[in-house]
Write a structure and sequence with these properties.
The protein is of the alpha/beta class. It has a ten-stranded mixed β-sheet with strand order 6-5-1-9-10-11-12-13-14-15, with helices on both faces. Strands 2, 3, 4, 7 and 8 form a five-stranded mixed β-sheet that branches. Strands 16-17 form a two-stranded parallel ribbon. The chain is globular. The N and C termini lie close together (6 Å). A hairpin with a 5-residue loop joins strand 12 and strand 13. Helix 6 packs parallel to helix 7 and helix 9 packs antiparallel against helix 10.
């Protein structure tokens, strides 16, 4: 099985991440109208595997980069807490099987493993409700301090990832330590966290942030419009130029694909049209794809070309690689598409009339089995 090649010339050799680790259940709701505050709605309990954000993102990083607990060729190290219960044990088992180093994931007695109740409308959109009193929420600054030495060793070769379902204050502390270590700092935020994160200047501590259209709208105080999507993107571009000149931003817009924004420019990559089994987890897979591509040296976007939509037929950048992965994820009803790897992505791209450029293919290991 091919993977993305990590060697002595790769920009990054390790990812250390904090965020939610847990499981959940999935309901398919009756009716497309948005669930009301006082409404009771029938829903069918689905046989769907649901995972929390950190687990989803690092799964793809580990799978695509051939991670191993030894750290060679790539080291994926989550820091988190689970409950001393069956769901927590299952999460540890699944992470270990994919090559993730779980030495810093500890069981917390008296608190359950993080759990989500996800819901999906007939049109395949949806959301979730996640426990706030879980073991994951008990992660503290002291826990983060215990990995400071690991962060500081080869900090320049490290991606530090801060994701929701751990308190905003602890993530802020983690990003400060990552900044001191010289690590590449990446994050995403839940909608309700965007304003306080902005007020506390957390965006100034980031090299990469991944947001959906609602979260990006909250950041720049401008709602997303499907009729004029580029108005929001231009506002995000101005935010970066004014407040965070070194920040890279990804804004996902559902079936419209995603935008990548830098201080110099922005680019749009449309998503392939697919029969969506579920969009849950697509945004996290997008982030996992971006980080995997950046780790091996695939450029974030296609140079510093003028603002606009990129040619869809040839995948040349981390943006395009990640949009392909997110679209492929949507073929699975689960929040992690366990089939996703370089070979399955290549086949999917071919079916969509797309291909990886020679420049991207040189980052692939070996040949197909």
């Amino acid at each position: 099985m091919r993977a993305l090649r990590i060697d002595g010339s790769s920009p990054y050799r390790r990812l250390i991440g904090i965020g939610g680790i847990g499981a959940g259940i999935f309901f398919e709701l009756e009716g497309n109208h948005t669930l009301g505050r006082h409404e009771s709605r029938l829903g069918r309990l689905l046989e769907v595997r649901d995972y929390c954000k950190l687990h989803i993102v690092i799964h793809y990083v580990a799978k695509l980069l051939g991670a191993h607990p030894s750290g060679s060729p790539f080291h994926v190290v989550p820091l988190g807490k689970i409950g001393d219960d069956a769901p927590g044990g299952q999460m540890l088992k699944e992470m270990a099987e994919i090559g993730i180093d779980t030495a810093h994931v500890t069981a917390s007695s008296g608190k359950p493993t993080l759990f989500s109740v996800c819901f999906q409308y007939p049109d395949a959109s949806g959301g979730n409700i996640t426990t706030s009193n879980s073991a994951a929420a008990a992660l503290s600054d002291k826990d983060v301090d215990e990995i400071a030495e690991l962060l500081n060793s080869d900090g320049l070769l490290t991606i530090a990832l801060a994701l929701p379902e751990v308190s905003l204050e602890v993530r802020h502390h983690f990003l400060k330590l990552a900044t001191e270590a010289g690590a590449f700092r990446a994050a995403s935020f839940a909608l309700a966290e965007v304003a306080p994160a902005k007020a506390s200047r957390m965006f100034q501590l980031l090299d990469l942030v991944s947001l959906n259209e609602e979260e990006a709208g909250a950041l720049v105080d401008h709602p997303f419009s499907a009729d004029q999507p580029e108005v929001l993107i231009q506002n995000c571009h101005e935010f970066i130029q004014t407040c965070c000149p070194y920040l890279k931003m990804i804004v996902s817009v559902g079936k419209g694909g995603a935008y990548a924004i830098t201080n110099e420019t922005w680019q749009h990559c449309p998503a392939p049209a697919v029969d969506v089994a579920s969009s849950a987890g697509a945004g996290d897979s997008l982030l996992g794809g971006i980080l995997s591509a950046l780790a091996v040296g695939i450029p974030f976007i296609r140079g510093k070309s003028s603002n606009g939509t990129v040619d869809q037929s040839c995948i040349r950048s981390a943006l395009e690689f990640a949009v392909l992965l997110a679209s492929y994820k949507c073929l699975s009803p689960h929040t992690i598409n366990q089939l996703a790897d370089i070979d399955s992505l290549s086949d999917f791209a071919q079916r969509q009339g797309r291909s990886f450029s020679a420049e991207v293919q040189r980052f692939f290991t070996g040949s197909r089995a």
